[in-house]
């Protein structure tokens, strides 16, 4: 094997290791769940990008409260607000 081929193999190998290490690092840096980083409101999932097939554990999100958009890790979802019995409506009438 020539010196050039060995250099290219080592260089490409180190580049791939760097990409994998950066992906793992940023994976654990992203918060888990569906809460906004800015205002802690529940976020909505947005349409998946083409790369979702290779990285399904990342979740593109958008916050309706503050407009933040970014990536989150898949995790526990905020339960919807509990809806109980409707509150009795106050009768609007003439005051006595």
Describe this structure in words.
This protein has a three-stranded antiparallel sheet, with no helix packed on it. The protein has one domain. The chain starts with a helix and ends in a 23-residue tail after the last strand. It is of the alpha+beta class. 28% of the residues lie in helices and 15% in strands. The protein is rod-shaped, with a radius of gyration of 24 Å. The mean pLDDT is 81. The longest helix has 27 residues. Strand 2 and strand 3 form a beta hairpin.
**Low-pLDDT segments, ≥5 res:** none
Largest sheet: 3 strands, antiparallel
Tally of separate domains: 1
Number of strands: 3
What topology, given as strand order, has the largest sheet? 1-2-3
On the 0 to 100 scale, the average pLDDT is 81
Elements, N to C (H/E): HEEE
Distance between the termini: 101 Å
> Using only CA atoms, what is the Rg?
24 Å
List the helices and strands and how they pair.
Blueprint: H1 3-29, E1 43-45, E2 58-63, E3 69-73
Antiparallel strand pairs: 1-2, 2-3
